[in-house]
Design brief:
- 77% of the residues lie in helices and 0% in strands.
- By secondary structure, it is mainly α.
- α4 runs antiparallel to α5.
């Protein structure tokens, strides 16, 4: 296949897709390193296993799963030229994104800290430091996804997407689904290794 063939727009679209995939691969590598360090650290004598897992993290997991559905419904509606439904589903996804971040924050900074566990300081442990770090890094990426989602909403309102031309929307949806799958992996890891 000749990757230099095609119009300038096709070349740009291909480059944008490749950039997204390079970014996703680098995120996988980042979280692979964090989770590997987490798993190796579980062998330490000071590893905690008696803390109560934050219920807010369970709720946030349900929220992000629903948001993955709503963003896919938004994409399907926009591609089918159902603009109002597309706008509604994008806005619902954005609200769910804010709710996800809020419940994650509550799980870390309300539920864990109320148990006396902190990220750093004398009340911290390697376990809680990893919990805070892994979840905070994921939250940072969800915030990046929400910024992309806001951009998608603005572009959609401006009529930028159509059945024939919706690359920005597709890339944003792919990133959002990736964040969803990444959180499911992290949640299962953190929940079942507690």
């Amino acid at each position: 296949m000749d990757y230099t063939a095609g119009t300038e727009k096709l070349k740009q679209d291909r480059a944008k897709k490749q950039m997204l995939w390079f970014g996703l691969i680098s995120l996988c590598m980042t979280f692979a390193g964090l989770t590997s360090a987490y798993i190796v650290s579980m062998e330490r004598k000071d590893w905690l296993d008696d803390y109560e897992f934050p219920q807010s993290l369970i709720i946030s997991t349900v929220i992000i799963l629903i948001s993955s559905l709503t963003i896919q419904l938004a994409k399907n509606a926009i591609v089918q030229d159902k603009r109002q439904m597309g706008t509604l589903m994008l806005l619902v996804t954005l609200v769910l994104g804010f709710a996800f971040v809020g419940f994650q924050y509550q799980g870390l900074f309300t539920e864990l800290t109320s148990q006396g566990y902190f990220m750093t300081g004398p009340s911290s442990s390697i376990t809680t430091t990893f919990l805070f770090l892994i979840i905070a890094v994921h939250i940072a990426h969800v915030i990046a996804g929400m910024i992309a989602l806001i951009t998608i909403v603005i572009n959609h309102i401006r009529g930028k997407y159509s059945k024939e031309d919706h690359l920005g929307l597709t890339l944003g949806v792919t990133f959002w689904h990736f964040l969803d799958l990444l959180w499911i992996f992290l949640f299962l890891l953190l929940y079942f290794t507690k």
